[in-house]
């Protein structure tokens, strides 16, 4: 069809270890798509949520094997990032989303708890945090007011003495099932900023980051009922981390030093980025224009970070934006990182689609240390 694009993706250098998939959202009169090695995988418009998730599923196994994992959706506004990460929302917010319409986050939570159920009882606990980065501020979406209602509370990102980034006082909630994960996400999604634009009537104006921290006891510690889990059964602040600057952090005590090992913690970060936007096309003004400018600046900071990593520069500008500072451990650290590029294959969005593919190509050129396993003794039958 003359209005649509056929993507012919080609790439000279494929040297990095960041995986990049491209998802093309369906449009009317779509003919066909050709994929090639710019990305590790191209998901055509006809591919279901299930098929997309099949590619992601093995990462959940590696999470339980001791690797940090980050899955991030990137793309222009309206290209299908929220559809890919969370899934289609029904008109009726109280209605359950059909399995076939669920995105990566609910499916990943489901798979994670399925895998945990196959492990020895009480060997794993999962805590969850949810933040949004809105107008370059980090908001803790699980923080509650005195009536118990979730309210976005501003938090800072700091660099710890080990050079990693950390959010002191971030709220973590213990979750025991994928239903609990989705209940919490649905309760905070209403806090996420949305605005109508000329390109997308329900455009997300913030980056949305769900983190599931899995604590796994080493096999020799299974007899031990950890005091940490007692703390985690109520609401906690920053228990999953070791921020040396965090005033809220109280390290989990080892009950018998020298005999048991503390639990190993691995993180699954699921990121629905706000969409890059050409303000001329989206027609935003006033507060929405400021939001767009913050979104575009943070995405360009993300691209700068990738550029610095590609060139192996001694200084990587993570602190230039709250988004990159927050994602520092996943982008430059030891996490297995999958970027899902979302594109709308129409002539009208050619420049945005090329920009997204350029971002993906840059990510593919980053050569990082191979993902590191937290503890080789972790694998439990
Ligand atoms: N692969 C797909 N299959 C079916 N519908 C899709 C697909 N991708 C996107 N859509 C639909 O397109 C619309 C826009 O998608 P979505 O809200 O996910 O965009 P977005 O990239 O998150 O936008 P923004 O950055 O502005 O928030 C939604 O109605 C969504 O259901």
Automatic annotation (TrEMBL):
The keyword Cytoplasm applies. GO terms for molecular function: ATP binding; microtubule binding; microtubule motor activity. One of its GO terms (cellular component) is microtubule cytoskeleton. It is found in: Cytoplasm, Cytoskeleton. ATP binds at residues 75-82. PANTHER family: KINESIN FAMILY MEMBER 25, KINESIN-LIKE PROTEIN KLP-3. This is Kinesin family member 25.
